Structures are given as C-alpha cells and as structure tokens.
Amino acid sequence: MRLPLASCAAFLVLSLSACTPAQLRLPDDAPANAQSFAVSGHSPRRFNEPVRFGPYSALEMREGWTASWRIPVGNADLERTAKPYAYTLVALGQAPVEVQCRARALAAGTGPEDRRWSVDLTSMAGPLLACGLHLDGHDPLPLEVAREGDRLNGEVALPWGGHYAIRGLQHYANTPIRAGTSIGYAIEDGGATIAVVDLLNGGRVHLDAALGEEQRVYVAAAAAALLLLDPELGE
Fold it and tell me: What is the pTM of this model?
C-alpha cells in the first residue's frame, strides 16, 4: 500500500495552533471554467484498485509489483527500479482508451544506506514513464515523462495530431515553499493549461470544460497515468 503523498509532517503550518493540509498552487493560467473532480483510488493506494474521478474510471487495472535490482560495479553499484501498469479508461457514451505504462529508474550509488550518495541515470535508459495510449478507432500513441533536474516534464501525442505538453508542478499554495519533486502536473496545449493533475491528499483532476468530449476522455486517460506514477521512483 502506498501512503498519501501529504502527511501532517509535511503540512505547511501557517499558525502555531493549526495543522492545515498542504494545497497545490494551480498555474496562473488554469482554466477559470475548469471542472474539478476528487479522485478515489489514488492515495491511499491499494494494489489493482480502479482509479476514478468524475465520470471517468480507470478499470481493468493490472499493476505489477515495483521490482528493484542492484548490481555491484567496482566500489559503487547500479540500481534499476521498474513498475508496469495498465488499465482501460472509460466514460459513459465515450470510446474507451486502453493504456499500458512502464515506469523505470536507473541510478548509480555508493556508501551505506544511511549515508548513501547516488546520481540519477534514468535519462540514459529512457524516460521515467513511458506509456502507450490507444483511443478506440485510432492508432496507439506515446506518453512520456522524464526527470529534468528535480522536475518531471514530458508530452503526450494526440490522435488528432500534435501533442500536449506535461509540466511538473512543485509549488504549494499560499506559501513560497517549493517541493523537492512534482506534487502535480499541468497538461498544456500550446503553452495554455487545459488540465491540472493534483497529487496531494486524495488527489484531484481539473479539466477545461471547453474541451470536446473526445479530448476530455483522452486527457483523463493521461491524467490517470500521471496519478499512478510515483514521482519518487528510484530516488
């Protein structure tokens, strides 16, 4: 079972008398007309549990266990971590989207666990997250997310041509504090935010109401893939 990303120890205390759950700072250009859906099945996470938000459900969930291998290399070692998952994103009256993903990380490290020094080498082996999205009636297309420093960024190709950018979000609301890894994602069309995936607490997905129904179900399928990715994989 994966514990919630936000715990009381990570909350931002704005007064000595209260402990308030941390909130994601939404992008400045987040759609004013966005529909906001609470997520079930994301955090806490139970093995093979469907992920649902609003009218969208990631069903037929097939999760593999997170597997790690550590190979000695001289005075250091090489560690590889991988986790596969697959599901079908459905919504009433909409074509299904079949999704298959593999998250993987590669790192070199040295020293004991309590004083371990490591460097991320995932980019040498490919993206942190690689998915194939198959909207019924169209060819399968890729979604990829890679670590760039302490950020996670990527893109998802679209059945109707072009792509949406995926940008990791790290800022908490109402505070200058910035997380050390992504606590959410913005999905952007030509630099304009059309969806936000919030990883904090139980999770939340915001979708631009101006998107067409086919676009929305496809973006929802991408959002589910991001919800299932552990941003700390391999760290």
Answer: 0.83
